[in-house]
Amino acid sequence: MIQDREELLHYGREMIARRLTTGSGGNLSVCARAEKRILVTPSGMEYLSMTPADMVACDDRGTVVEGGRRPSSELGFHVALYRHRADIGAIVHTHSVYATTLACLHREIPPVHYLVGFAGHKVPLAPYATFGTPALADAIIGTIGSSNAILLANHGLVAVGPDLKSAFNVAEEIELVARIYYQTLLVGDPKILSADQMDEVLLKFKDYGRQPAAGESGK
Ligand SMILES: [Zn+2]
């Protein structure tokens, strides 16, 4: 799990470097399902002063099993998401500015740009609930469906993926789309892609992420 600790720290620092959060905002985790272990960033620590040893290991119910730090105050929704969707292996939660702006307007993100496909057909919006509460976990579980990203009203963004790199990419791409959507709203009337157009995008994304197996042409 030492590799996971280093990876969490790396992407925590990337969140700062790529302006997806500031200070100690947001949090990240990875889940090793076979071992029923969740590794999560500690509560209230600045990413730039963390070390791999500060990451907190929990069981699949969120009980701390290793580490001297308190886990992120949002561990509850991380645990709930891993339990809810077997395809999730990592979670990145940010307060990135444009996604959060839309979340404060209670606007979900429609397919205004094909990169919404990183999340799915759209980025849904979970209703407001106080941070760190079971009510927030319930709001997320009740809204996320099969999406890889969800806005939290008056709060921020949650991105998920099979691994940390994927979840981080989703967070970064959706922040870009959020900015584009916000800017199009300022100028006028954004043109939204149809469900059929997004179906085509999602199909291509699937192909794009797949390496040709031995014997395939690789076209
Ligand atoms: Zn938060």
Describe the protein in words:
This protein is an alpha+beta fold. It has one domain: L-fuculose-1-phosphate Aldolase. The protein contains 6 helices and 8 strands. It has helices spanning 2-17, 75-84, 97-104, 134-144, 164-187, 195-208; strands at residues 27-32, 37-40, 56-59, 64-66, 90-94, 125-126, 149-152, 156-161. An 8-stranded mixed beta sheet has the order 4-3-2-1-5-8-7-6, with helices on both faces. A hairpin with a 4-residue loop joins strand 1 (27-32) and strand 2 (37-40). Helix 2 packs parallel to helix 4 (134-144) and helix 3 (97-104) packs across helix 5 (164-187).
Notable characteristics:
38% helix, 8 strands, 6 helices, 219 residues, alpha+beta, 16% strand, binds zinc ion, L-fuculose-1-phosphate Aldolase
Strand-helix topology:
Layout: H1 2-17, E1 27-32, E2 37-40, E3 56-59, E4 64-66, H2 75-84, E5 90-94, H3 97-104, E6 125-126, H4 134-144, E7 149-152, E8 156-161, H5 164-187, H6 195-208
Parallel strand pairs: 6-7
Antiparallel strand pairs: 1-2, 1-5, 2-3, 3-4, 5-8, 7-8
Helix pairs in contact: 2-4, 3-5
This protein binds zinc ion.
In spatial order, strands of the major sheet run: 4-3-2-1-5-8-7-6
What is the CATH architecture term? 3-Layer(aba) Sandwich
Give the mean pLDDT.
93
Shape: globular
Low-confidence segments: 215-219
| Total strand segments | 8
CATH topology: L-fuculose-1-phosphate Aldolase
Strand content: 15-25%
What's the structural domain tally? 1
| Bound ligands, named by name, code or SMILES | zinc ion
Gyration radius, rounded: 17 Å
Fraction of helical residues:
25-40%
Q: Which superfamily, in CATH terms, is the homologous superfamily?
A: Class II aldolase/adducin N-terminal domain
Distance between the termini: 37 Å
